[in-house]
Amino acid sequence: MKDLHSIQHLIEAFEELPSIGRKSATRLALSLAKDKFKALKLINAIEEVVTNVKTCEVCGNFSEHEICNICDDPNRDKMLAIVESPKDIMLIEESGSYHGYYFVLSHLDDEHIQKLRDIIKNKKIKEIIFAFPPSVESEARSLYLEDKLKDLNVEFSQIAQGVPTGVHFENVDMNSLAKAIKLRFKMNS
Ligand SMILES: [Zn+2]
Fold it and tell me: What's the CA-to-centroid distance between 108 and ligand 1, angstroms?
């Protein structure tokens, strides 16, 4: 494939994406080499995402505005689900089982904890739900956060069974995720 450097580059770029192996990357690259219109459409869509999508200053969700639609909505329930990534917000929203606010905890540092405290105060949050995929680390992180936030007079709960230990949300069906949120249990502190 000496004269096919460009296709080789594209295959390598696809391979860096999550859940795309060598075979799929090759298939995608060849299909785009064949259909220039499809390729340009993809370039356009990617460019739009790169230009328009940013991180919400309040919760860390993806948004096309400084503040996302969820944070901007005053009619949401006074609950805050703490999640690991914006992808989890999409999944929980799709499950339709929750109508509160969110916070993406990408790092467990003082800056994030301060942001978390600000959103709890500003939105007058009454209940915090730790919506992490169940694991020993999640448990430890929830307890640590509970300790850091307990002076704010909020209740703490954790998503319930239905989400098996060690399995990420994207691999759990919508009904189980919805059930896990509805059947969340209060944490004893
Ligand atoms: Zn937001």
Answer: 18
